[in-house]
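Design job #97: recover the sequence.
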């Protein structure tokens, strides 16, 4: 029986690898099979001996009057992937709306307070990772508060995923994240162009996207960068992974929030995993690959059911099945 299960797992792994990566040589096939297995290795086993919180306590920093959906999507995705607790630190006006979306979330209406930095910092010792930016907006006071939260997170060595308007802040003040190798940036095409211009003082070389991602990561001090697109490019300044798992042509708003929320959990898991499980690979590179694979698989499954009407809520409903298909089959 054990041999049969192992053979089935190997076949599943091979099928996913063939769908997921741009492969040119037998050597690259082996590399990608190894990478997928390493992502699987960081997923913690579900056992009866664990207590609430051990699988992850994730904080989402974002949510304002205009944007309440994004922090909800990121926070609920973190729970669906396997975190035990999901906190949202948002503005006072956004809090009742986000609370109304789900009783699963712990919502703190503090982000626009005069003492926001101190209030969020008090929670940092209880959190395993932060996701900064979903629904943040660009109000100057909020950006200043978030800058203080990022500084406090770095001081406490907490992994940070930065997306959306958190990336706007980084583009304005790259020093806030420079050299912090427990950070992951998840820009789309426009956000990447803005970051590239701010950090490297020039436009992106559209003929060499892999090289552009690699150079930006290096310029930021080997911060992990995930360039989202038709194929996701992931670099830690040392190598580039290209994830091209088939998703769909549907590009509804909120998909990046699913990715950032799931990445927050996987970043914690990857950093927690023993060295032998990651085989010397950079943990956040594996976490980013896992989150990209999962988001694309959710998109694919949701589109098969809903077609053009697919929304991010439909994708989040697929997280459990998609996770099993990728990482537990």
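Job complete. Output follows.
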């Amino acid at each position: 029986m054990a041999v049969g299960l192992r053979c089935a797992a190997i076949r599943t792994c091979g099928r996913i690898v063939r769908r997921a990566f741009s492969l040119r040589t037998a050597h690259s096939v082996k590399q990608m099979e190894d990478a997928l297995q390493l992502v699987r290795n960081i997923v913690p086993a579900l056992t009866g001996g664990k207590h609430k919180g051990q699988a992850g306590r994730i904080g989402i920093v974002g949510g304002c009057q205009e944007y309440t959906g994004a922090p909800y999507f990121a926070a609920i995705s973190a729970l669906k992937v396997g975190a035990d607790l999901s906190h949202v630190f948002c503005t006072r006006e956004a809090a009742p709306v986000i609370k109304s979306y789900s009783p699963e979330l712990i919502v703190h209406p503090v982000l626009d307070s005069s003492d926001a930095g101190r209030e969020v910092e008090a929670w940092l010792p209880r959190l395993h990772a932060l996701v900064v930016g979903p629904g943040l907006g660009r109000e100057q006071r909020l950006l200043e508060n978030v800058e203080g939260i990022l500084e406090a997170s770095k001081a406490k060595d907490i992994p940070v995923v930065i997306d959306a308007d958190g990336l706007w802040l980084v583009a304005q003040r790259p020093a806030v994240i420079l050299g912090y190798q427990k950070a992951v940036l998840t820009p789309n095409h426009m956000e990447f162009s803005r970051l590239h211009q701010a950090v490297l003082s020039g436009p992106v070389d559209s003929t060499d996207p892999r090289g552009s991602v690699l150079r930006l990561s290096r310029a930021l001090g080997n911060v992990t960068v995930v360039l989202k697109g038709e194929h996701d490019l992931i670099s830690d300044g040392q190598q580039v992974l290209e994830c091209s798992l088939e998703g769909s042509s549907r590009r509804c708003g909120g998909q990046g929030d699913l990715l950032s929320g799931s990445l927050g959990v996987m970043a914690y898991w990857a950093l927690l995993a023993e060295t032998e499980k990651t085989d010397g690979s950079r943990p956040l590179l594996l976490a980013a690959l896992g989150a990209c694979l999962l988001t694309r698989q959710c998109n694919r499954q949701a589109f098969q059911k809903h077609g053009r009407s697919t929304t991010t809520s439909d994708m989040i409903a697929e997280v459990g099945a998609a996770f099993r298909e990728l990482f537990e089959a």
